[in-house]
Amino acid sequence: MDLPQLLLVGLVLLLGVVGVLVPGVPGTWLVWAGLMWWALHERSALAWSLLVAATALLLVVQVVKWQLPPRRLRGVGVTRRMAVFAGAGAVLGFVLIPVLGSVPGFVGGIYLSERLRLGTHGEAWASVRTVMRAVGTSVLVELFACLLVMGAWVGAVAAGP
Fold first, then answer.
1. Contact between 36 and 14 (Cβ < 8 Å)
2. Running DSSP on this structure, what letter comes out for residue 22?
3. What secondary structure letter does DSSP report for 78?
4. What is the distance between the terminal CA atoms of the chain, rounded to a whole angstrom?
5. Which of 56-70, 73-87, 139-153 has the highest mean pLDDT?
6. Alpha-carbon distance 90 to 105, whole Å?
7. In this predicted model, which residue has the larger pLDDT, 153 or 70?
8. Is residue 115 within 8 Å of residue 89, measured between CB atoms?
9. Phi and psi for 47 in degrees, rounded to 5?
């Protein structure tokens, strides 16, 4: 696969990761579709193995997400600004500490958003706990899986044929 196609696949994967944070966007399925596009063009054992493993992981994540109790987002104060901060924090954490950094980055983004909105550490941290109980778990599970798939793809592309 040539460089422009790899960049397009990377863009689709990135849009999928961002789509996890935007309600109504099929983020997980965009990540899977981007990986399938790459595997269909790459046609190597590594590409097919990664596609099979990612498919299994993303299906398990969908089942786990449906099993988590649904909560009302607006009732606990989740805003678009908070979602942007949480997503940016997760991506920044993913870059700083590959894959594992996305979790503290996600929580840190929510904290920063609430700290700017509320002003004090205590109020911001209490709000973070409330938000994480209401929505954070299901979004975090899906975001972590998508970032894990994207990280595996980056590793596979870097390893090359």
1. no
2. S
3. -
4. 10
5. 139-153
6. 4
7. 153
8. no
9. -65, -45
Amino acid at 54: A
Helices (H), 22-120: 27-42, 45-67, 80-96, 102-118
Kindly report, residue by residue over 114-141, the tens digit of the pLDDT.
999 888 999 999 988 888 877 767 788 8
Question: How many CB atoms are located within 10 Å of the residue 88 CB?
Answer: 18
From residue 13, alpha-carbon distances to 9, 27, 86, 117 in Å are 6, 9, 18, 31
Residue 71 has pLDDT above 80, yes or no: no
More confident: 134 or 13: 13
Amino acid found at 19? G
Cα 113–chain centre separation: 18
> How far apart (Å, rounded) are the C-alpha atoms in residues 122 and 105?
19
Measured in residues, the chain has a length of 161
Cβ neighbors of 151 (< 8 A, separation 6 or more) are 94, 98, 99
**pLDDT above 70: residue 99:** no
Collapsed DSSP state (helix, strand, coil) of residue 15: helix
Mean pLDDT along residues 33-41: 95
